[in-house]
């Protein structure tokens, strides 16, 4: 009996731990400044219905969603039943987010990515590599979402129009832009001695330079996606945000995206996912 109680205490403590790390990553992403086209501490980028306080309130409102996903995932295997359990919690989390923000979409993509990664982190022992956690999260995502509402979303419309795999595809492939782009960029910048905030900005810019972000496509079509990718590549070609030329190009990209009313919201979510994985032991 004592063993069972200990195990439950352990699971409760660990799911609390994962939820705290997930919320912290979302807040750190929101507070990171400057970010092109996105909400940060300087401005609301291309978002007229968002601001930094709302982003932080939204992030905090998701604590219980991530804790519940972690708790329900312990000692499970990735299967249809786990997929459906966390889908129900994730959908409830979306409603909680909309209540916290008065109906504005702040973190839909983040709930999805972070929910899957939290579930996977809870399946594996502490100390599992980010790559392994991402592979298992992808496995969970590939089970069918049989109870998903059958209505068109920005993502489904954009997939039909442009063929972009979007948030769903990114997860099903095991988060290639998190483990194959963001984390290597973050480690590389740290190895070069670049200060942490600039290392994180360069990580975001690396994601923007490679991701087909459906948030950009939905708001500004192929022109906005192209402008974002090219602008991000220019910053990286100039040595990143820690160089004077790179910093100037970063400010130019911010202005270009605001002019297009375009926002790399999916890239921001994947930066938060990378910060979450990076924060685990
Ligand atoms: C599988 C789901 C993600 C649903 O898929 P769907 O394709 O239907 O989703 P969308 O409604 O399009 O939302 C997906 C959000 O993911 C982010 N994103 C975009 N591109 C990518 C990418 N390539 N890789 C990863 N992530 C990506 C993006 O989120 C951010 O932008 C948001 C604002 O975007 P948007 O709504 O388009 O713009 P608005 O400003 O709201 O538009 P206006 O109406 O104002 O014009 C912001 O929230 C960021 O987070 C996409 O928006 C999944 O959600 C799902 O099925 N969930 C069900 C529950 C579940 O199964 N959960 C399991 C684990 S919890
Ligand atoms: N900082 C941010 N600004 C706008 N949309 C976002 N989605 C996730 N993070 C965001």
Polypeptide structure, described:
Helix content is 72%, strand content 0%. Helix 1 crosses helix 13 (265-279). It has 281 residues and is mainly alpha-helical. The two termini are 29 Å apart. It folds into two domains: 1-30 and 47-147, no CATH class; 155-164 and 176-281, no CATH class. The longest helix is centred in the N-terminal third of the chain and has 30 residues, at 2-31. It has helices spanning 2-31, 52-61, 63-73, 80-101, 108-123, 130-141, 154-162, 166-172, 176-191, 196-210, 214-237, 244-259, 265-279. It contains 13 helices and no strands. The chain binds ligand LTSJ6FE6 and adenine.
Q: What is the compact description of this entry?
A:
Helix content is 72%, strand content 0%. It has helices at residues 2-31, 52-61, 63-73, 80-101, 108-123, 130-141, 154-162, 166-172, 176-191, 196-210, 214-237, 244-259, 265-279. The model has no long low-confidence stretch (mean pLDDT 95).
